[in-house]
């Protein structure tokens, strides 16, 4: 299985991908916009989606709503990455199907905990499983 990162900013995508590679042995794929990510979700099965709130063409919320319509993604963890910590966004995102949040700038320890919580310890690199 794999993890999909949906992030239009190349620097942010690189940072999140780098953090993910340090934490999990899962394959990591990156899409720069919601439409590309949606096509990937139709073609492949991802174990977790990490989605930026602000994407070109389709917002992160619109993307999450579209993916949640697919049966195989009903229970897949979807994490929204955002600098906005307002309660309105949190409510809207949870209503759309967002499982959890990562706040920018993404902190390594919080990211590791989030992946372990949603993917389980088995998805972590072996040396991190007992940490």
Question: What layout of secondary structure does this protein have?
Answer:
Elements: E1 2-6, H1 10-23, E2 27-31, H2 34-43, E3 46-52, H3 60-68, E4 78-82, H4 87-96, E5 100-103, H5 108-119
Parallel strand pairs: 1-2, 1-3, 3-4, 4-5
Helix pairs in contact: 2-3
Describe what this molecule looks like in 3D.
It holds the Pfam family Response_reg. Residues 2-119 form the Response regulatory domain. The modification 4-aspartylphosphate is found at residue 52. This is Response regulator. It comes from Rhizobium rhizophilum. With 131 residues, the protein is an alpha/beta fold. The protein has one domain (8-121): Rossmann fold, CATH 3.40.50.2300. Helix content is 42%, strand content 20%. The protein contains five helices and five strands; from the N terminus they run E-H-E-H-E-H-E-H-E-H. It has helices spanning 10-23, 34-43, 60-68, 87-96, 108-119, and strands at residues 2-6, 27-31, 46-52, 78-82, 100-103. It has a five-stranded parallel beta sheet, sandwiched between helices. Helix 1 (10-23) links the parallel strand 1 (2-6) and strand 2 (27-31). Helix 2 packs parallel to helix 3. The protein is globular. The model has no long low-confidence stretch (mean pLDDT 89).
Summarize this structure as a short list of keywords or feature phrases:
5 strands, single chain, transcription, CheY-like_superfamily, alpha/beta, Response regulator, Bact_response_regulator, transcription regulation, 131 residues, 5 helices, Rossmann fold
């Amino acid at each position: 299985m794999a993890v999909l990162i949906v992030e239009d900013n190349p620097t942010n995508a690189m940072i999140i991908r780098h953090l993910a590679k340090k934490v999990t042995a899962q394959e990591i794929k990156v899409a720069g916009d919601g439409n590309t990510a949606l096509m990937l979700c139709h073609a492949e099965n991802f174990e977790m989606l990490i989605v930026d709130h602000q994407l070109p063409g389709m917002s992160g919320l619109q993307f999450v709503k579209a993916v949640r319509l697919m049966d195989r993604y009903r229970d897949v963890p979807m994490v929204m990455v955002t600098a906005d910590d307002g309660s309105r966004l949190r409510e809207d995102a949870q209503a759309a199907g967002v499982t959890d949040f990562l706040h920018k700038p993404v902190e390594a320890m919080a990211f590791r905990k989030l992946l372990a919580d949603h993917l389980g310890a088995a998805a972590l690199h072996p040396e991190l499983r007992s940490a």
